[in-house]
């Protein structure tokens, strides 16, 4: 249960138990955890904190200015020369403080507007998404029969799925994830945009909404640095390149899946359903983790998805000089601190995690090599680090020494690990969710 809770809060969707064992109340708890763990909600909380901080700074500055004005009006009996000097000093301080207050006010207004824009995006996507999914479930007899067979309420499924997809968690209230809906192309087309705007395409959507407000001053503040208005507010050119990069990754992955799986994993589907399933899998391979196909049956296995699962959501092909983040290096030491020198790169840490899990699962690696192999562990670790949720799963059929007590379960591969292995994967999920604070690691290590 702790593993599942961490997986929901870090929007990783790594499963150790079947989802259909949860009651309606437990599904609502998981929904709340996924909602507060989503990237858009975290961004909203950050903007609220920045808004409060700027408001307090402006209030404190106003109190100081009003106090100075009172002191200036207080009658004193010094010499005339001293009075002139004090008046000149006070006037100079007032002139110097005015631009600071104006800049803080501009940042305050920009952050406040961004807060309302992000809040509107959060509410609109969830309300419209849940209603659209529920409407499809009522309109599609096959999908409705699936929910009835699994004893799932339509609105519980709609809300849970919308929150999970938009937060890029990837949990589904069904054991088979989206495999039971691989023929429901309209449902896939409803969920794919939610997965994109909830993470990889959230910066372009935010920039488009800001542009729609007509606030040019907000764009000017954004050019001075994203730390002033929010991590996701990018300049227009960067947003266009980010959108192009995301579309390019999706197109390449969908084309490769279609080329390699057209007559195997996609067999039995119509041409349109095959293309839709390939696109849906490509969209979810970055961070969402919802799957309409069994990954263990893909021809190249998930080697194809390891790279894209590792990449951060804002990965962009940007062959230009980035002016959005300007830093003053004059006030910083040119050397690298001891802490930064000891921090390793992201790949180094993932290698350590893979080795540690191989040690904890060494007995199973020897006794059950077709299920427990290094590639499957790498996929699970990278998927947990990228908060994706893709898994190779576990099959009793692949056991070399068949265990008569082995039963097939719709859980992730990590569900068969030891408790030590699961604890390491919990650390990996936290590490991946907070990787923004360690992305600069490894710079002090010189390999040549």
* Class computed from helices, strands and strand pairing: mainly alpha
Number of E-state strands: 0
Terminal residue distance:
46 Å
Individual helix count: 17
Strand residue percentage: under 5%
From the alpha-carbon coordinates, what is the Rg to the nearest angstrom? 27 Å
Compute the average pLDDT: 82
Report on the biggest sheet.
Answer: none
Number of domains: 2
- Strand/helix succession: HHHHHHHHHHHHHHHHH
Could you say which overall geometry the principal axes of the C-alpha atoms support?
Answer: globular
Overview of the structural elements:
InterPro entries: Cat_transpt (IPR003445), TrkH_K-transport (IPR051143). One of its GO terms (biological process) is metal ion transport. Belongs to the TrkH potassium transport family. HKT (TC 2.A.38.3) subfamily. By secondary structure, this protein is mostly helical. The protein folds into two domains: 223 residues, no CATH class; 101 residues, no CATH class. The chain has 17 helices and no strands. Helix 4 runs antiparallel to helix 7, helix 14 crosses helix 16 and helix 16 crosses helix 17. The radius of gyration is 27 Å and the shape is globular. It starts with a helix and ends in a 15-residue tail after the last helix. The relative contact order is 0.11. About 2% of the residues have low confidence.
